[in-house]
TrEMBL record:
This is Uncharacterized protein. The keyword Transmembrane helix applies. Residues 355-389 form a coiled coil. It comes from Candidatus Nomurabacteria bacterium GW2011_GWA2_40_9. The chain crosses the membrane at residues 56-76.
Length: 498
């Protein structure tokens, strides 16, 4: 029997079927795969930064970014320049006719105030007008404390609440008309008044010597307390003058002179007798000096002189009841006036009037009279060449806002010792051998335009500069009364407007 092989129809059929399927769909599937790949490639090209289209967008973006940063930088670096000149950051304290900005970085190093003073003298503000000056540093308005620091000033430490940062530098353009005839009359009237006052003082000093009444070189005017030593050379010279006038009242043919050194019984010490003896000795010495200078030897030979020492008491002159009515100061004064050196004459005198030693007040008055006479002489010399003098001055000022007078007065008072050192340049004053005495000169109390002031005078009595308390909240530093008057008016005006 013949065995016939069996055909694997299933396997064959499946394979063939697969092949047939692949063959029948060959073009469609491949095309689909290729199409999908092409799409992915196209998308990749569109998103790639290396594509021509995207490179253009990137370059445009970078350019715009750089342009933006440049604009911001330019704004930051130039924005301040356009704002400084518009208005200062502080409200002006007073009404100003003109305002000026001074950049201190452009001024000579260490000469800030001198530079500002130069600006004040170059002002073209109207006559009687006020120009305000604001100091800036790198185009920023400087506050008070920073300004003092830049000046390296010696202003003492203070509570920042006491002084406002808003302050004002400035200049008053003053036009002073001086009529020499009018000035001469004013000064002459002043001289007449001073001489009248001096005459009244001299009348109070006059003593009429009666018989037996002593001339006393007393402890209150001539001697250092508790000694036989003169207060100074002037006191000794005045003692000789007084003795000389005393001797003019004596008729030496019938009189003798007694010299008595005295001490106060009311002030008992172990040295009292020694003090009285020393004063007797000084009294004889100075009397002999005057006699030698005043008279011949023949005249001196006729003079009889006696000397002694003793204690004197207030009870010798006043009763117990009178003493009880006196104040302690009056008792002390009488005791001082009684002790010293007494000169007696035992005869009737001619009753001549003499002057006792002048007081310090009288000495000052005499000096003031001499100064006025000197001014009159200067005016007379000027009048020979000119009748009227017109003087234009530009007066700097420094106006400071404060919380109250009581807060800042101690601060300014403590600053006085160094204020001239710190501010002399602002008033156009150089420190030279002729002006360096002002560095240590004492300030004086004064009244300017009815306001309390502290004033620095030069040796001729002229105001160097001063600080004036305009009111509770304003202190003015300036060098003329005219500038003070103008600032006071403007402060008052600003208060009215408010």
């Amino acid at each position: 029997m013949q065995i016939k092989p069996i055909k694997n129809s299933v396997t064959e059929t499946y394979s063939k079927d697969i092949v047939k399927i692949l063959e029948s769909n060959k073009d469609g599937l491949i095309q689909k795969i290729i199409h999908e790949e092409e799409q992915r490639e196209a998308e990749h090209k569109n998103t790639s930064p290396l594509s021509k289209k995207n490179r253009i967008f990137i370059f445009i973006g970078i350019f715009l970014l750089i342009l933006s940063f440049g604009g911001v930088f330019l704004y930051i670096t130039t924005s301040n320049d356009s704002t400084v000149e518009v208005a200062p950051q502080f409200t002006p304290i007073i009404f100003l006719d003109k305002t000026q900005i001074v950049e201190i970085t452009k001024l000579p190093k260490g000469k800030i105030l001198e530079g500002i003073w130069g600006e004040t003298q170059n002002t073209n503000v109207k006559i009687g007008g006020v120009e305000g000056i604001y100091a800036t540093e790198n185009n920023k308005i400087i506050g008070f404390k920073s300004f003092m620091t830049l000046l390296k000033s010696n202003l003492p430490e203070y509570n920042p609440a006491y002084i406002n940062e808003n302050f004002l530098l400035g200049v008053v353009n003053d036009n002073s008309f001086k009529n020499l005839d009018l000035r001469y009359k004013v000064v002459s009237d002043s001289l007449a008044s001073l001489e009248s006052n001096l005459e009244e003082m001299n009348l109070a000093r006059k003593t009429i010597l009666l018989e037996g009444e002593p001339l006393v070189l007393n402890n209150s005017s001539f001697f250092k307390t508790g000694t036989a030593e003169f207060v100074d050379v002037d006191a000794r010279s005045k003692a000789k003058t007084t003795i000389s006038e005393f001797l003019d009242t004596i008729d030496f043919a019938t009189s003798k002179v007694k010299v008595v050194g005295t001490y106060s019984v009311e002030r008992p010490t172990k040295k009292n007798n020694a003090i009285a003896e020393a004063r007797k000795k000084v009294g004889l010495e100075i009397l002999n000096e005057v006699l030698t200078e005043k008279y011949t030897e023949e005249e001196i030979a006729q003079i009889v002189i006696e000397a002694s020492a003793k204690g004197v008491s207030i009870n010798d002159t006043y009763s117990k009841e009178e003493i009880e009515l006196m104040t302690s100061e009056e008792v002390t004064q009488i005791i001082d006036q009684a002790q010293g050196i007494q000169y007696y004459v035992e005869a009737k005198t001619k009753g001549k009037t003499i002057l006792t030693a002048p007081t310090e007040e009288q000495k000052k008055l005499e000096q003031e009279i001499e100064d006025v006479k000197k001014e009159i002489k200067e005016i007379e010399d000027l009048k020979k060449s000119n009748t009227n003098i017109v003087v234009n001055t530009k007066d700097p000022f420094f106006l400071i806002k404060t919380r109250s007078f009581s807060d800042v007065f101690p601060v300014f008072r403590a600053w006085e010792d160094k204020m001239f050192t710190d501010l002399h340049g602002f008033f156009g004053i150089d420190i030279t051998p002729e002006t360096n005495y002002l560095l240590t000169k004492d300030w004086q109390d004064g009244i300017i335009q009815n306001k309390n002031a502290r004033i620095l005078y030069d040796k001729d009595g002229t105001i160097v500069f001063m600080y004036v308390f305009i009111d509770e909240n304003n202190v003015l530093i300036t060098n003329t009364e005219k500038a003070t008057e103008e600032i006071i008016l403007r402060i008052a005006s600003s208060k009215v407007r408010k």
